[in-house]
Specification:
single chain, alpha/beta, Nucleotidyltransferase, domain 5, 2 domains, six-stranded mixed sheet, 37% helix
Length: 397
């Protein structure tokens, strides 16, 4: 079976075509800066032959044009890996959320309507996915389309850890609850740990640290708690998003004279690591500024780490112990200083990291010190592979 995985960003598209169940990647592709006149970037790679196409300064005005360009190369005689578009059996998406749909679902009109209904919780993310899905359904009319929703991995979290202290009717009527995100990433980490432990019971905490960050408690491959709430504007501070905050802050700032748009921008676009540091949303630049004595940059790193440690401590108690602490995603995989700052705070939990290994770590790595009671790992996430596996395994009801 051939499974195409499509990852949609606000101005980007990423593709991977898998041969399943072998999990062999046949082709990759990406489009960046969609909608930017004469400045889009396109890449196509045939992993069977090594042929690749790299194009810059392109005019790719829409998702449709980006999708069609990738599919054209995918089926071309010179560089293609399949003869015709209908050779794609299934298309899997890392979709965000849909009202009433929390696992892996066929992307029917009903599911897409659920995505539209909950647009206020993920406006930027769901808008792009809906557009891309509708386009590809037209281009690939015979394929089975599946959404691996970012809430999927967390659907079995116990209700006492999901409910807010709001009227219970809001949960029943509107679905108000903590949903959790980054399922493709945390789910992939669970797959890796399942293989590591070979069916033996284990307790783990996965730290997905990147432009958007979250912490997840995993017991025997199942999520039992997560730092995200109902919306993406929750949990840890993110690159530009505020994360957890007092729900009365909006009304207070409006009272102080800020407009709704100014408040929204402060929470969504100018907050987080950028807002505190005043330097950048990128940890690499914040770390550089911190090393040069910038106090706000130093503070931003400390606030970020304090939030991570807070959730790890809480989840340690939820789990009743810890076997594995995993760092993943852009910051988790590459920012040794963040890993060190976190682990330095966790000695009371028996976490000790080998600093020499941490300093030289590149890609997958075991950073566990000899006298550590907890395994400390860096595992590069492979969200697309996790989606491909779940898309392949889906059975129509």
């Amino acid at each position: 079976m051939r499974v195409l995985v499509c990852n949609v960003g606000s101005t980007s598209l990423k593709f991977k075509l898998y041969q399943m169940p072998e999990c062999r990647v046949l082709s990759t592709g990406k489009v960046e800066r969609v909608g930017t006149p004469e400045d889009s970037i396109f890449q196509y790679v045939n992993l069977q032959t090594g042929q690749r196409v790299d194009q810059e300064k392109q005019n790719i005005p829409s998702y449709r044009s980006g999708i069609e360009r990738y599919l054209t190369y995918l089926t071309s005689k010179e560089q293609g890996v399949i003869a015709k578009i209908s050779d794609i059996d299934r298309v899997g998406y890392k979709a965000t959320l849909s009202k009433g749909h929390f696992g892996v679902h066929e992307l029917t009109d009903e599911v897409l309507e659920g995505m539209r209904e909950w647009l206020p919780l993920a406006t930027l993310h769901n808008t792009g996915y809906i557009q891309a899905i509708e386009t590809m359904r037209e281009v690939l009319p015979d394929a089975l389309f599946l959404g691996c929703f970012e809430t999927a991995f967390h659907r079995n979290i116990p209700l006492e850890r999901k409910l807010y202290g709001v009227p219970y009717e809001w949960y029943e009527r509107y679905g108000v609850q903590r949903l959790g995100y980054h399922s493709a990433s945390h789910g992939y980490i669970a797959d890796v740990l399942n293989e590591k432990h070979g069916g033996r019971p284990y307790k783990a905490i996965s730290c997905h640290l990147g432009g958007s960050s979250s912490v997840c408690a995993i017991e025997n491959g199942v999520s039992i708690d997560t730092s995200f709430g109902m919306s993406l504007q929750s949990g840890l501070i993110h690159a530009t998003r505020v994360g957890d905050m007092d729900c009365d802050l909006f009304a207070f700032l409006r009272h102080e004279g800020l407009t709704d748009q100014e408040i929204h921008d402060g929470f969504e676009k100018k907050g987080g690591l950028l807002g505190i540091s005043g330097v950048s949303a990128d940890v690499r630049y914040i770390q550089e500024a911190a090393e040069n004595g910038n106090e706000r940059a130093q503070l931003a790193l400390k606030v970020f780490v304090a939030g991570i440690v807070h959730y790890i401590g809480a989840f340690y108690v939820d789990l009743g112990g810890l076997d594995d602490l995993v760092f993943t995603a852009g910051i988790g995989e590459n920012a040794g200083i963040i890993r060190k700052m976190v682990c330095d705070k966790l000695s009371a939990l028996g976490v000790k990291m080998d600093e020499a290994k941490n300093a030289s770590a590149h890609g997958k790595a075991d950073l566990t010190a000899q006298d550590s009671q907890v395994s400390v790992l860096v595992v590069p996430t492979d969200e697309e592979l996790g989606i491909a596996r779940r898309t392949y395994a889906y059975l129509r009801p």
